[in-house]
Amino acid sequence: MTVIEEPVQLSTYNLLRAALALFKKSPAELAEAELQQAKTQALNEFRIESRVLNAPEAAAVIITEQELQQAYQEIQGRYDDEAAFFSDLEKNRLDKDSLLAALHRQCKVNTVLELVASRAPAVSDVEIGIYYHVHADQFHLPERREACHIFISINPDYPENTPEMALIRAQELAERLRKKPHKFADLALKHSECPTALQGGVLGTVPRGTLYPELDAVLFGLKAGEVSDAVKSEIGFHVLLCKSIQKSETLSLAKATPKIRQLMNERARRTCQRAWLAGLTAPETEER
Q: I need a labelling partner for 137 at 20 to 30 A (CA). Which of 147, 166, 250, 285 fits?
C-alpha cells in the first residue's frame, strides 16, 4: 500500500471534510487504509483550492465578516451546545481561530467558483426545445395513486397474530372502513403495526411497481376514496385506501421549460467551472 505523506500545507480542516465525506467519521476514527484515502482526497482538494486562490479572479474577492460569521454559526448550530462544539473541535485538532481561517479560505474558493460559473452562457429556448424532444420520456408521468394502509403482521408466537387471527382482524377493519372511510387515519394509528401508523397509514403518492405486487394490483383497481378487502403480502395482511388518483400525463414544453432551464443552466455552470479549473496553473509551492 502506498502511503501518502501529509504535506505541511494540508489543513486539518480539509482532512476532516474528506473523512466525513468519504466515511462519515472523523480522521481519528479511521482505519489506516481509510485515513490514507481521506488524505489523498484532502490533498487533491487542497491543491485545487490553492489554484483557485492564486487565480487572478481571486484577487478582487473579499469575504466580509458577516459572511464568515454566518459560515461559522452554521457549523456551530449543528451542536446542542457550545461545550460540545468546542470539544469536537479539540478532538479534530482545531480551535476557533483555525476553523475561522479554514472557513475564510472555503468561502473565498466558493465565491470565486460562483463568479466563474456566472460567465456560463444563458440557455436559449431553442436548446430547451431540443432537450425536451430528445428526452421526451423524462416528461411523461405515469398514473399515480395516493395510498394509505393498515398493516397486521403474521407472527404465530402471538395469538392475535396467527395467520387466521391476523386475517380476521384485517377483514374486520376493512369492513368498518368501507362504511366509514374517514376513520382510516384514526384506525391506522390504533391498529396498524407499520411505522406509517403515526402518519395515519400514509404511504404517499406512488406509481405502479412501488409496492408489493399483491398490493400494487389491488391499489390500482380501486376507485378514489375506496377501501380494499384484506390483502395478503409476504409480510402480513393490509387494508388499503386509495385517497386520490393522478392520471398519467405528459408535461407540455411550456410546463417542462423551467425544469429544463434549471438543469441546463446548472450543467453549463459546471462545464464553465471545469474548463476554467483545467486551465489554471499550479502554484510554485505545489509544483515543488
A: 147
What CATH number did the domain enclosing 228 receive? 3.10.50.40
Residues 151 and 130 both lie in one domain: no
Set of cell numbers at residue 76: 456551530
Q: Grid coordinates standing for 213?
A: 405486487
Mean predicted lDDT score pLDDT of the chain: 93
C-alpha cell at 244: 386520490
- If you compute the radius of gyration of the chain from its CA atoms, what whole number of angstroms results? 28
Q: How many domains does the chain have?
A: 3
Q: Which domain holds residue 268?
A: 122-140+256-288
- Can you give the pLDDT at residue 189? 96
Q: How far apart are CA 223 and CA 155, in angstroms?
A: 32
The pTM score is: 0.67
Helix ranges (DSSP H) in 120-239: 125-134, 163-179, 184-191, 213-219
In this predicted structure, what is the pLDDT of residue 240?
Answer: 98
